[in-house]
Write a structure and sequence with these properties.
A hairpin with a 2-residue loop joins strand 21 and strand 22. Helix content is 20%, strand content 31%. The protein is of the alpha+beta class. The strands form 5 sheets. Strands 7-6-3-4-5-9-8 form a 7-stranded antiparallel sheet. It has 8 helices and 23 strands.
Amino acid sequence: MKRFWLLFSQTTTVLLAVYFVVLTLKPQWLARAPGGERSVSFVEAPAPLAMEAPVGSFRQAAQKASAAVVSINTSKAARRNPNASDPWFRFFFGDQGNEPQAGLGSGVIVSPGGYILTNNHVVEGADEIEVVLNDSRVARAKVIGTDPDTDLAILKIELERLPVIVLGNSDQVQVGDQVLAIGNPFGVGQTVTSGIVSALGRNQLGINTFENFIQTDAAINPGNSGGALVDTQGNLLGINTAIYSRSGGSMGIGFAIPVSTAKQVLEGIVKDGQITRGWIGVEPNDLSPELAETFDIKTRQGVIITGVLQNGPAAQAGIHPGDVIMKIADQPVTNVAQLLSAVAALRPGAAARFFIERKNQPLELEVTPGVRPRQRTRPR
């Protein structure tokens, strides 16, 4: 009996030892039981390096550009109605609220000196402008200048160690290029969306006087105005300005002002305090078949002049209603938008050659442009 008990104890000891070894080294051998599978094995990817971005990620571009994109909060004091204290006025119209109006937008820091590019409609009429940086710093901003014709404005803040965005080359952008839109939509906080360049040179949209928009399907919503459109390297390509929408939200059709235009406006405002553009005082129209028939014009290219301001630069140079402008300083002109841009680029006081057709005969005139009058901002 003693021998069997010794054999039993030794066998039990060996089995327990084997069990603990298997449990420690090969636990999956014990995962299955007669009742079915009792645990699940997973295959996990190795942890990536700390700075390594997944294939196809725009992480680096977003991080590079986001630091220089700011949120802009504006406030406008309520305008008290002069009749607000009249009892009869209050009886019919009620008490008029005196709450200040708040606005929201975005901007882009483009200079270590604190210059910020944004849209004119973001800061127009604001009494106070507050800029919130991506690192949570807050500063009051002052308006250095605005350009309603392109819907751009320049702000300035006084802070040290400012992040600055790198300016890209919007003239080399092609349809199909990938882009990111960065801003503060609906005030939810800085947001990055992605898409492609859908079209270039969009104009005649009735948004600005001078239009040459980059169209993109990257989601742009209210609050994104003044934010950055950047390439996949994080370089600034444009200032997000407007969307086409039936609901007020993004429908995949957004428009940005090219950085080449924004740079010209920035330099002009900082240097001279305003943008100086050429002006000749004409009323141009696209050469439609109806106008061509009315004025008995055979050409189908160019811009027809239907009105000339008396004693304006064009009138003094001899341009008449019914003339068709074909080229300005060797630059072809095919529509009104091109004409406005070409004339605006002329230096006031310096004569420029205009190639026109009058009664189907070519004619060359020298026109000395004046300074374009400052336009009143149109309601958006």
